[in-house]
Every structure is written in structure tokens, then in C-alpha cells.
Amino acid sequence: MRKIKKMLALTLATMMLLSAFAGLASAETVIKVFSNLPDRTTGQGFVEQQLFDAYMEANPDVRIEVEALQDEPYKIKFSAYAQGTEMPDLLMVWGMPGFLDEVIDAGLLAALPPDLGDELGFIPGTLDGFSKNGALYGLARNTDVMAFYYNQKMFDDNGWAVPTTYEELLALGETIAAAGIMPVSMAGGDKWPLGIYLTDLLVKIGGPGVNGRLYDAVANKDFNTPEFLQAAALMREAAVRGLFQIGFETADYGTAKNLFTNGQAAMFYMGGWEMSMATDPDIDPEIRDNIRMFIMPVVEGGVGVATDIAAWNGGGYGVSANGAQREEAIKLLTFMFHPEGWNKIAWENGVTMTAQDFSAYGTGEETPVQVEFTLAFTSATSVSGTPIIDMGTANFKNVSEDAMQEVAIGVLTPEAFVQKLADGCR
Amino acid sequence: MIASNKLALVRKAVLWSVLLVFAVIQLFPLVWLVNFSLASSNEMFTTGLLIIPRQLRWDNYEKAFVSGNFMAYFTNSMIVNVLAVALVLTLSVMLAFAITRMRWKLSGMVRNIILLGMMIPIHATLLPNYVIYDRLRLTDTLFALLIPYVAFSLPLGLFLTCGFMSSIPKEIEEASLIDGCGIYRMLVTIITPMLRNALVTVSIMTFLNNWNEFMMASTYLRSARWKTLPFSVLEFTGLYSSNYAIHFAVMALSAAPVVILYIILNRHITKGVALGAVKG
Q1: A43·B238 Cβ contact <8 A
Q2: Do A39 and B243 touch (CB under 8 A)?
């Protein structure tokens, strides 16, 4: 009887061990990704999903679970995750001090191998926003260049020329408005486009060194310089002289974009990520095929030249320091940004300009506006880096965005505007 | 005689035209929703109030249904909302009875504390609640939605049922007790049916509020298992701009069940609000 019991125990123990091993063998690794690209079928969300699918196909034992929310809910959920214990492994992060500093200081992001950026062919300087104290915490997924999109056919038909100075731009705005068309469609309701407009003006007024002075201004809580006062005054002047559409301060992104894509506005002030308008089947071909761009023209008396541009690297990815799959997430990140990955797919689909060298992927079928953006970026003599609104804390972002809107509509004078920016730093 | 007839006719005409204006104002959003859901995204920002689509885009609905995971999210929404309504009704009736009919020291205080819940903004509770759910391992479960939905709907539910219950004559309860009815039976078979109008109002208000709720759902849920209908809209939201036409289609589909419910229960709602509001 005892023998039988022993045999039974042994058999059971063996079975348990075997099943445990079997369990181990079949265990799949689940990488949790938290993204700000809810639409997985178009644009950057499409590129991201393609890369995840390719990674899962190459690694059958890995499953990638994507949770995607829009920017604002994303930030709220990010704060929630930061306080809980279930931080996803791969995270979308903004390479801007306003967001990243707090996240790094809280120890939420893992340091990446220091040479990773160079190994993956990132353009020098594009990862500055993702680094702190010499350590690398993330990889940028695109290079954003701000520009005026314009409808070339409309310009040609009316005999309008692309302005080369700010004064010419304002005069052109008046001419266009007189013809019964909205000159520039501006998403002033979202506020941040105005913040970038001001940064653009600062670049043209202050020239290549303006980026450092912006950082100093935020650090010293002092914006009372002729540069800032002039930039604020010029932005206000644009609104007064009717460069932006009526009610621009309440127009959101979609409204502003659609005013342009419907032909109601001659120009649209927005970033390079909108270059995909030129391939959007929903836009009337007469407008779609005639979309071109120009960079903010020079300001008379300013130091900045035409090739000093407002450009930065905003969105990117970081790896959670406390995630269950830290190493796997770094592997996935490396895979996403291998030369044939994000860079190639994003460029070939005309989705965005990446932060890596994309010159090798020219298909010859790029849209004119895609080519113009590339030229503007590759021939730039200096770039602005992070726009001013994203240089400080989250509070500074809120206050400065409000201030941008208020100075544009004339509620704040330029002097009160710089004071409000300073208050926002406190 | 003729003059008074004419006067009545004029009065009627004025009344009808005022009501007609209100009806148009009330119905316009729905017409607008359906109208835009059949256009293409690019047609939306024209100058006219309504659009005459170049081509009726029924495929917006097809995309909303298929790519928006409509059925899965709809089922989740139904489960969460039906459970939330059932719990709010049960708790409201029982609490209202305990507060208005039973004599105990802290009844007034308990009622006031629960009613204070009406003043707490949802956003203030998001992060603390998340931390609690995280500790209890409740995130990404049905309870992560059910608990806050019931908690936020209960104050209004209690307010309305309390008001109604105090208008029911005590003699009815006394009569039923004399006839040998127990407290629970009395509550279920006598009191609850008399509260019908109030309960319908509470149901539809709870349902409406929670049907469209997104902030808590997006914070407390992670996987698709319990995601509710507002997530369908998100599936078509791009980084900077979105496919608005499909948004309209998803919203029209999401609004349909609530509109139908409202039409069915409409008769009771006005009564419920009006009667419950004056008896506090």
C-alpha cells in the first residue's frame, strides 16, 4: 500500500513538474504599450501598428497589447499610471522639458543604452529633448517643422506671390481678405499653434541663439526683453490686420484645417505632420494637388534669416523603469527604429518627417509639399528646438498658452503678456 | 361668440408656434447629427447649417460598425449601464425608505452626506480612485466602472426617491402592516410600484449620464474587455485631426438607444422630475 502511495506521489510530482515546464515553454511575453495614437488605420497610428504587427510576426512568443488614448486623456491616464503599480512597458513621451523633466525626476523612465541614437541613425540633436544629465530616456519619432501651407493655384490665379518678409505677409493677408477669402486659417482655439507662431517670430527676430535665450528666460522667470515684446506685438498686429480668419481664437484644429482644405482659406499655419493632406483622398483634387508650403518670412530688422526655422522633435517613445518587460520593451523600441522601420514606412507613406536620416528612402513619388518640407529642414541654418510653451512646467504651459491667445486678441498688451509668462514660471 | 372663438384660435396658434419653435430647437441636434453622419469629412466645414452631401456616405456607418468595434462596446455599455441602473434603483429605494420612514438618530446626516456627493466633481476623484482600484486589483474590471457609476448616480436617485416617498401617505403602509405584510414585501409590492415615476426618472438619468461617460472609463480601463461605447469614437481619432464624418456616424449609433429609451419613457420623466423636486 505504502509503495503504491509512493508511486502515486512520484507520478503526481513528475506530472506537476512537466506541466510547469510546459507552462514555461508556452508562456508568451506580453509587452504593454501606451500610445497617443488611437486611430490605428491612418497616419502615424497606422505606421506604429504596422511595426507592432511585424514584431509579433518575427517573435511569435511576444504579444503586444496597445492602449491608445488622445493627448488629454492620455496625460490624465499617464498620471494615474504613475501613481499605481501597473505602468505599461513602452510609453509615448513628449521630448519636452514641460513633460519629460517631471517624468524622469519621478524615476518612471529607464535609461536607454547611450549609443542607441547614433546606432539607429538619428540626426544629431534630435534626441536632445529626450536626454537629461547625459542619459538618454527616449527616441523621437518625428521632426516637426512649422510652416504656412498655401494653395498654389489660388495664389497663381489671383497673382499673389509667396511673401519674403513679415510685412509682405501682412500686406498679402489684407489683399486676400479684400478678395473675400480668409488669408490664414489659424487654430487659435487650441492655443498652442499661437505659441508656435510666437516661437517662429522669435526665431526670425532673435536668430540662431534664440533657443538658449528662451531657456534662460524660463529659468530666470524674466521675459521682459525687446525680443519678446516685439514678437508679441507682431502677433497682435497680424490679428489686427486680419491675417487670421474671423473668430480664429475659437477655431479648433479640425475647423482650421477644413477651412483650408475646403478652399475657404488661402493658407493654413500648421506643422509638417499635415503634409499628408496632399495625399488625402477626402480632399478635393483641385486643392489637394496644389498644396505647397513656405516658412515664416523674415522680420524686418530681425537677426534671423529665411533658413532659421521653427522645428523640434516632439513625440517619441520611452521605456518604463518599473514595467514587467523592461528589456523586451527596449528590444521592441530598437526594432521600431531600425533603419527600415519607422523611418522608412513613415516617409514612404508621406505621414511625417522622421528624426532619422530619411534621404535613402526617396521614392521619386513624394508630393511637392513633402519635398519642400525636406528642403526646408535639410537646408536649415538653425532650428528653434522646443516651442516656448513646452519649455517649462505643466503650469507654465497652461498659463503661457492662455497668454498667447489673450495677446493675440488684444486682451493683454505685450508688456502684460511678458509679465504673465513670468508669473506662469512661479 | 365668434369673437371668443377667434380669440381661442389665435391663442392656439400662438401656443402652437411657440411649441413648434421649441420642438425645432430640441430636435435640430439630432437632425444635424444624422445629416453630418451621411456626409464626407471634407464637406463638414462649409458655411451652411446643414449639408447636402454630394453622395450619401452610408459607408460611414459601416466603418463605425465594423472598425469601431461597435457591437462589442455596445454590449459592454449595456451590461454596465443596466447593472448600474438596477443597483442605483435598489439602493435608492432602500435608502429612501430607511431615511424617510424609519426613525434612527443619524438618518438626516446620512441623507445629507450622500446628497453631498452631488457636489463632488468627477475629475477630483479620478486619481485617488485609480490608486484605490490599483491596490485592490480592480482596474480593468467591470467593477472599476460599476462602483463609480453607482456612486455618482446615487445622490440624485436618493434625492428624487426621498421626495416621492414622503408624498406617499403613511396610512397605506400602516394598512398593509395591519393586513400582515412584512417590511420587505411592503417595500417591493406596495411602495416601489407607487414610486414608478420617480424610478423611471432615476433610471433614465443614470442611464444617460453613464452611457456617455468617458473620462472614468478611459482612466480605469485598459484592455478592450470592458470598454464602452465612447471608445468607439476614439478609434477614429487621429493625432491632430480626425475622421469627423465617422465620428458623427458613431455618435448617431450611440445616441439611438438612448433616444429610443427616452421616447418610450418620456411620459413618466416629466412627472418624476416635477413631483420629486418639490417634496424634499
Answers
A1: yes
A2: yes
What's the pTM value of the predicted model, to 2 decimals? 0.78
For A196-209, how does the pLDDT look when each residue is reduced to its tens digit (9 = 90+)?
A: 999 999 999 999 88
| DSSP state string for A381-422 | SEE--S-GGGSS-HHHHHHHHHHHHHHHTTSS-HHHHHHHHH
> Contacts of residue B63 in chain A, CB cutoff 8 Å?
none
Annotated domain spans of chain B: 68-278
Asked whether the predicted pLDDT for residue B242 surpasses 50, the reply is yes
CA distance B234 to B237: 5
* CATH fold of A30-143+313-361: D-Maltodextrin-Binding Protein; domain 2 (3.40.190)
A-chain CB neighbours of B234 within 8 Å are 38, 68-70
Chain A residues with CB inside 8 Å of B131's CB?
80, 83-84
| A144-311+382-424 is classed CATH 3.40.50.720 | no
Topology (CATH level 3) of domain B68-278: MetI-like fold (1.10.3720)
Which residue shows C-alpha cell 411592503? B186
pLDDT tens profile B65-104: 887 788 899 999 999 999 999 999 999 999 999 999 888 9
Sketch the domain layout of chain A as residue ranges: 30-143+313-361, 144-311+382-424
d(CA A146, CA A149): 9
> Which residue in this structure is represented by grid cell 516685439?
A230
Rounded Cα–Cα distance for residues A58 and A115 (Å): 25
